[in-house]
Amino acid sequence: MKLDLSNNEIVTISADALRNLGSLTEIKLGNNKYLCDSGICQFRNWILSNTDKVKDINNITCTAPSAYAGYKIMHLNTDTICRNSSINNNVFEINTGTLIGFLVMAGMVSLPISEGPEQAPNK
């Protein structure tokens, strides 16, 4: 099955909708008005997992926000856009370093400070 969704006014596409197209052999998604916020991440991942089916991958670009206008969706930096996408799903993601830093500042954890190698007591 071939599907051409290019050259429309599409702003977002649910990756779930695309996953349900099992018989899809070819798809065109380019030249739309994609909003590249954290909601684009699953769609981006779907594109990257289906590069053999997406025939106009170089034309799938962001229109908004202006900071990402013209960026190819497949080249979006996952650390800046997709890393915090789970916040929109009522889940908060935090990395270990940030968590430890917060706990130390809150005084809940104290980290040992080494003053050098331990010496054996004098006999």
Structural features, described:
- The protein contains four helices and four strands.
- It is an alpha/beta fold.
- The protein has a two-stranded parallel sheet with strand order 1-2. A two-stranded parallel sheet has the order 3-4.
- The model is unreliable at 85-97 (pLDDT under 50).
- It starts with a strand and ends in an 18-residue tail after the last helix.
- The protein has helices at 15-19, 41-49, 78-82, 96-105; strands at residues 2-4, 26-28, 34-35, 62-64.
- Strand 1 (2-4), helix 1 (15-19) and strand 2 form a beta-alpha-beta unit.
Range of strand content: 5-15%
Main sheet strand line-up: 1-2
Which H/E pattern describes the elements?
Answer: EHEEHEHH
Largest sheet: 2 strands, parallel
SS elements, strand count: 4
* Low-pLDDT sequence parts: 85-97
Number of helices, where a helix is a run of at least 4 consecutive DSSP H or I residues: 4
| Average pLDDT, all residues | 76
Structure classification:
alpha/beta
Estimated helix fraction: 10-25%
Separation, N- and C-terminal Cα atoms: 85 Å
Provide the gyration radius in Å. 23 Å
Instruction: Give the overall shape.
Output: globular
Give a brief outline of the structure.
The protein has helices spanning 15-19, 41-49, 78-82, 96-105, and strands at 2-4, 26-28, 34-35, 62-64. By secondary structure, it is an alpha/beta fold.
